[in-house]
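Sat 14:20. Reprocessing the chain from the morning session after the first attempt stalled halfway. Input below, unchanged.
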Amino acid sequence: MSPPLVIPFFIPHQGCPHLCIFCNQRLIAGQTSKTQTSDSEASRLSDVVHTYLQFKKNRARVELAFFGGNFLGLEKSRIRALLKTVQPWIRRGQIHSIRCSTRPDTVTPQVLDFTRPFGLETVELGVQSMNDHVLAQARRGHTSSDTRKALALLKTHGFGTGAQVMVGLPGDSDVGAVRTAEELAELKPDLVRIYPLLVLHGSKLAQWYKTGQYVPLSLDQAIDQTKKMVSIFKTAEISIARIGLQATQMMDDTGQMIAGPWHPAFGHLVLSALMFDQACERIDFALTGNDRSIGKPEKKKIALQVHSRSLSRLQGDRKTNLNRLLQRYPEISFTIEKNDTLAMDQIHACIVSA
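Finished this time. Tokens:
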């Protein structure tokens, strides 16, 4: 079954009582306007919906997503106006449900009871970390306890749940990022999104970066931390909706994105790194019990089988993975074969007879 068409509508930094150290939400959302009248916002929302519905094709389900701000923290009249604007498409069966992102500390029984009749079905929480010390440094204004309570409340009220987390936050570490993933996995949200922390112009973090108070993760460090989190969520059978920020024109503007592990295909790099690790495990297993002594003159041949849609992940960006395999196993020559009976994230390795 094909994934749903998700129509994103951004409400940059609106409804949020705090300004986190990393936040310049207008850049992330690709928006420049700060406030709008209800009429102009409804018009913009209508334009976005009409544009995205052209790309529905044969997908059976369409979801509208209010992203970028603290949706459930908006004024009640504003929430009602936005949700009511979507209702004609819901009645016609063109949009099937609504989702939103919000802070954990704005989830209450009252706001959930108010929004559910309008078709709001999934709420994604801006968790960022499950370490209270890290959250305090980031000036999030909520705690890990708020996240636990919000997830429990959402599930009790029958909502789908999501959690958005970051790697590279000040005060965090490789161990801390892994622990955040482990704690969230125990709470069983329906989906997660993982973002690397970037230093954006106009943020408090930009000041810290310029004075040396904050050093962002390198791209390799961010990939390494993220792949460990991905492995934890996959083991817990939690869907991973996105890895890395979406590319926008402003994100590519170095005057706005000052520093950090930015890459337009960050998610692909993470999944490729996981593929490399798995390939090494499968190769080592295939070689177990076989003679790998350096005194044997002939090279071994190993066929790596992978689903055709995962071929680029196995090869890596610019075939980086293949080059790393050749360096790690100089006594082996490799062939890659497509095998669509395998799962998308599965590799099979076997020694090929001479």
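The longest strand covers residues 120-128.
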